[in-house]
Prior knowledge:
Blueprint: E1 11-12, E2 15-16, H1 19-23, E3 31-33, E4 40-42, H2 54-61, H3 70-78, H4 81-85, H5 89-94, H6 99-106, H7 114-122, E5 131-133, H8 142-145, E6 154-158, E7 168-172, H9 179-194, E8 198-202, H10 207-217, E9 222-226, H11 232-235, H12 239-247, E10 251-254, H13 266-277, E11 280-283, H14 291-301, E12 306-308, H15 319-326, E13 330-331, H16 335-342, H17 360-368, E14 374-375, H18 376-383, H19 387-399, E15 403-406, E16 409-412
Parallel strand pairs: 7-8, 7-11, 8-9, 9-10, 11-12, 12-13
Antiparallel strand pairs: 1-2, 3-4, 5-6, 6-10, 14-16, 15-16
Helix pairs in contact: 2-7, 9-10, 13-14
Amino acid sequence: MKPRRWPKRFWKSGLKMTIDDLKKKIKKLGLTIDGDSGRMLVEWQKVPFSEADRPYWAGLSSIDGVGPNTLPLLISCFGSAKNVLFADKELLTQAGIPVNVSARIVGFYGKSDIKKWFVRALNPEPNINLSFLTPKDKVFPERLLTMAGAPSHLWAWGDKKILNQKRIVAGVGTRKITPYGRSVTEILAEGLAVRGVTVVSGLMYGVDEAAQRTVLKNNGIVIGVWAGGVTGQSLGSRFRLAREIVLNKGVVVSEFSFDKFPFKGTFPSRNRIVSGLAAGVVITEAAVKSGSLITADCALDQGKPVGAVPGPITSPLSEGPNELLKNGATPITNIIDILNMCGFSGEVLGKSLQYLPKNSKEKLILKLLADQNLTVDDLVRNSSFPISEVSETLTSLELSGAVGQVGEEWRATVL
Length: 415
């Protein structure tokens, strides 16, 4: 029996090189450690990859314990994902991989027929056809490549090309949405959709779903990020929304393979992808301790702007946005605030934008403001509406970006 041979990179002056040794040479391998978060920053062009290695990369990434930091380090170390999957337990353990993770790699059931496993992973259920994206692919989101702890892969259902669109905004918030939160979310989501801005969010109910369904209703594009495998069983009640997103030229993505179900620990991982895909994050309603504020923290770590919609101080679900505002988040009181925050305001959409009034009150107010600026008193006098109705209508129109205020006067806004 021939003695086992260590990969060349594991030798150093005649001694086996461990992960600790490798950490001293990670720059050479294209890897650096972010000083604040401790997460890995990867120069993916330096990580070995070939098309033949794609199924093995997918299989390795599906193993619990092989996360976005470990996978590139192992592949750089062993030369390929295939080499990692077929390394023996002793080699992996001596390299610094925990015993339980080494055991999972050695025992990975898919490697006995990796092509068959990969086909199943790409087609986990009838009518679900996935793509497996690595950072070496041109369609892999560029925004994710520059973040610490970037995902080493994505499973994508739908039009993967939209993941690299420039005009993407994340809209997130509580699952226990209030009528106020729903109204604000729908107005802002509609404003983004009609301006050609793609909206990314999780696939949960509440603010996520309100934003996504409003965008779909207005023929906009949605990116949904899931915290488990992209299958009907894993998505459960969220499957119908996911399918609508895909059918409407959007895309659903996940870091998790088909055999993984969401649990408490997978949602923070999902949140960093939601913020990572976007140019900015907007939170409409959220409690102080919530996943939405984790998404906000992820965005700040990634250098992304965070906006928050102010809410009633009596509402627990406005405590999160109000706290963010006290700490420097951008106040979001209308759609223009979001576009300015993300740097979209000066861009031309290629078509003129025409706001369609939702009711007769909006129609009359816009008609009165078409040729001149007017105060609230002017609008009350000329419309014969009570001041409460005029104020309510102006608020709705301002959130939609149809009107704006200059001093005490209101004017029609053209973007």
